[in-house]
What does this fold into?
Amino acid sequence: MSFVCRMCLKPVRDQEYHAACLRGLFGSAKVPQLDISLAKLHTAGLAMVGRSSLSGVQKKISVTLTTDRETLQVAADGGRYILKPQTETFPALPENEHVTTCLAKLVEIEVPPSGLVALSDGSLAFISKRFDRLPDGRKLRQEDFCQLAEQSPKDKYEGSAELCVRLLRKYASEPLIEILKLYRLLLFAWWTGNGDLHLKNLSLFTDTQGIMRLTPAYDLVSTRLVIPDDPLALPVLGKKSKLTRKTWVEFAEYCAIPKKTAQRVLEKQASVEEAANDAIESCFLPAEQKAALKELLTERGAALRD
Ligand SMILES: [Zn+2]
It folds into this structure.
């Protein structure tokens, strides 16, 4: 019997994951048991590591693997994974984050290993590996763009794409590299209708070599699937909606990205539409959300080619 892998969205025979995908996330080819139900998680206030800003409705729960790698447990601290269950407000957010994260890989945006896991009641939750921990459990130094801009967390929407570029110029060890990464990420967020890429969803960390760079991308969700016409969180050259190829070309100039490089990035983004449609077709979103996401990508792909 053929299934779709709950990590890479490619076909897999007789089971729900590829062994290699499981190893990449859990370090073992066995599916860990998750002995928690959604109802229990909704009351597990203590285990939360924070709320993502989809109006504060999505819980992030810290979980860890037992040493035999057979069970995932809620961890008060030191958890190596973040688990995001279904919410009561927006349908299919874990499935949404899963497919959006898979789409990011098509344009070579770095993301942490992640996938979907079933809770004991059968509902799917999104799980991703924390990237701010070293194998020995030590935490890497990390600051989000709200902190770098010296703004209060509640002002995470008070910013702009240009502010993010300036912060990278000031703090990143290799600004040119990081600004190009940021440009690709902002473009991708617009392409996928992600209105939740605010200042707290962008962070710099100091890696093991002491280099201060952007963390892998996280909290990638097509918010437009659940909040119609959701605009961008951070305006690009003053625009939160109705962006065009011209906007992105001009923003590349602001970023001091060479013209040819910017063109390549825009072409790459528009060129992955077919692969994206395949991933969306296989993903775990409800049919109407699949259709809406495909339509959005087609419309934005066309705007990029104009
Ligand atoms: Zn797989």
